[in-house]
């Protein structure tokens, strides 16, 4: 493997702690979905991801730390040109927290951006972020000036451009995915051309790259919308699961609600029978906002309880009581918007070498939520997977991204499973996932693409009706297929 002293250091692949892409569960009851630290591998030519189940050979892994100026642009162009000459794929990432190799170029050149430059434009209510900036760096820059990211991917470890590339969403309401808050960006195409893209300039490229998993171009920097940081007060409501959709819709329609999420109970005997709705509204006191913090000891306490659920139905019941009764009493006070979203993924690291946390995410319309509950009740308990958590969030309609998962306003269900790292565990997860996807697509829903590659090609095309359009545009922009990853190799490249 070739090393490059001109750019930071060559990472031992898999040495960055990682987990799922879309997994913030909500504030003050800080449990995280899908954590899995990927231990450094002895072979630096092998990269893995957050699942620990995707060991993939790579040619080299480079870290680029240049500012988003001429030097970085030249470096990217050189790597693309070299990759074309060698016939190797390229993929650019930040934290690489996906679960199916979506950020790994097989036998190719993996580039990690490591530059946290963020600049505020208070007049425009936006900030300019280097593609490699992490959300923690965005918050630390915006917070002292009284600003907050409008939409941020769950947890602050992830990269800003990576969030745009998977079009992840958060739990502020009533917004769509993060890509809808990007005003413009600069991107280097596979040809080496530097282009500026926005909803009005090169909009076709902008919409392809939003949720395009890095297959369209290499993002250099982005101008993203921000909102004022405010002090928020929570409200908690427990109800039958069948009543959640209407209650959630009412919360979304309430202009006073700025953040909202839900949970469902996970005991097998009463699976998905009860729901918790948590909403946040601005408090009366908006003076002297404290600096952004995290949830501190509450996260660590909740993480131990979260892990205690494994194979223990009594602890699942206890955790539900904690979330709906004890948690609101102990941790239900006011907090700033930035403090609520300023959480790392490491809090709930899974240290069991025999298991891995696996995420699913499904998107269903409000009217289809009852059918979604029925499907989950029939499919999930029938498997032997350990189901640990589900969080329900809102995602507004997305008519921009070609690979949109929200053709209408939808409820997003982020699910966390603990899976045996065995052939039996993988086979059972594959069977359960395919069955669940069939049921969700039947009711007009979709599944999220950054997770384990268990769906069939037909399931992907059924859930993403414009995928053929995306593939055709990709082939025209990148005839040598220099920007590829496991999503392309396993699915899109077969169309």
Q: Overview of this structure, please?
A:
The longest helix is centred in the C-terminal third of the chain and has 20 residues. The chain is of the alpha+beta class and 495 residues long. The two termini are 32 Å apart. The strands form five sheets. Strands 17-14-16-15-19-20-18-21 form an eight-stranded antiparallel β-sheet, sandwiched between helices. The chain has a domain of 227 residues: FAD-linked oxidases, C-terminal domain (Vanillyl-alcohol Oxidase, Chain A, domain 3), CATH 3.40.462. It is built from 13 helices and 21 strands.
**Unreliable parts:** 1-41
CATH class value of the domain at 231-457: Alpha Beta
Helix content: 25-40%
What spatial order of strands do you see in the largest sheet?
17-14-16-15-19-20-18-21
Strand content: 15-25%
Gross morphology = globular
Number of strands: 21
Radius of gyration: 21 Å
Please outline the major beta sheet.
8 strands, antiparallel
Query: Can you name the CATH architecture of the domain at 231-457?
Result: 3-Layer(aba) Sandwich
CATH superfamily membership of the domain at 231-457:
FAD-linked oxidases, C-terminal domain
Query: What fold name stands as the CATH topology of the domain at 231-457?
Result: Vanillyl-alcohol Oxidase, Chain A, domain 3
How many individual helices? 13
Structural class: alpha+beta
In round numbers, the mean pLDDT is: 88
Could you tell me how far the N terminus lies from the C terminus, measured between alpha carbons in angstroms? Answer: 32 Å
């Amino acid at each position: 493997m070739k090393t490059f002293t001109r750019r930071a250091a060559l990472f031992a692949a898999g040495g960055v702690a990682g987990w799922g892409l879309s997994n913030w569960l909500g504030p003050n009851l800080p449990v995280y979905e899908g954590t899995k630290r990927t231990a450094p591998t002895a072979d630096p030519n092998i990269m893995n991801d957050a699942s620990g189940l995707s060991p993939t050979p790579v040619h080299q892994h480079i870290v680029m730390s240049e500012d988003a100026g001429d030097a970085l642009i030249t470096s990217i162009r050189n790597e693309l040109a070299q990759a074309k000459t060698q016939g190797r794929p390229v993929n650019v990432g930040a934290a690489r927290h996906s679960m199916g190799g979506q950020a790994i170029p097989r036998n190719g050149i993996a580039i990690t951006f490591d530059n946290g430059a963020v600049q505020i434009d208070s007049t425009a209510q936006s900030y300019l972020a280097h593609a490699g900036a992490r959300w923690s760096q965005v918050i630390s820059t915006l917070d002292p000036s009284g600003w907050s990211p409008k939409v941020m991917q769950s947890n602050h470890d992830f990269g800003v451009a990576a969030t745009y590339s998977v079009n992840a969403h958060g739990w502020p309401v009533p917004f769509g995915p993060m890509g809808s808050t990007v005003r413009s960006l600069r991107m280097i195409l596979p040809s080496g051309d530097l282009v500026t893209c926005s909803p009005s300039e090169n909009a076709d490229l902008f919409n392809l790259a939003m949720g395009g998993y890095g297959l369209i171009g290499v993002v250099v920097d982005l101008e993203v919308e921000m909102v004022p940081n405010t002090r928020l007060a929570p409200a908690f409501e427990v109800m039958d699961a069948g009543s959640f959709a209407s209650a959630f819709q009412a919360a979304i329609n309430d202009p006073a609600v700025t953040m909202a999420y839900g949970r469902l109970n996970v005991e097998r005997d009463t699976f998905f029978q009860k729901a918790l709705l948590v909403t946040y509204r601005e408090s009366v006191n908006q003076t002297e906002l404290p600096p952004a913090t995290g949830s501190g000891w509450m996260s660590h306490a909740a993480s131990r309880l979260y892990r205690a659920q494994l194979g223990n139905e009594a602890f699942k019941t206890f955790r539900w009581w904690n979330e709906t009764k004890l948690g609101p009493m102990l941790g239900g006070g006011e907090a700033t918007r930035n403090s609520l979203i300023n959480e790392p993924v490491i809090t709930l690291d899974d240290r069991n070498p025999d298991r891995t946390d696996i995420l699913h995410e499904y998107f269903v319309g409000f009217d289809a939520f009852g059918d979604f509950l029925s499907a989950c009740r029939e499919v999930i308990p029938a498997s032997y997977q350990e189901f640990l958590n589900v969080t329900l969030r809102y995602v507004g309609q997305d008519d921009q991204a070609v690979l949109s998962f929200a053709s209408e306003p939808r409820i997003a269900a982020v699910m966390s499973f603990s899976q045996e790292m065995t052939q039996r565990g993988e086979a059972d997860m594959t069977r359960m996932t395919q069955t669940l996807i069939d049921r969700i697509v039947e009711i007009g829903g979709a599944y999220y693409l950054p997770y384990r590659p268990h769906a069939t090609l037909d399931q992907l095309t059924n859930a993403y009706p414009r995928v053929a359009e995306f593939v055709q545009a990709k082939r025209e922009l990148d005839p040598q297929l220099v920007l590829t990853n496991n999503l392309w190799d396993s699915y899109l490249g077969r169309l």
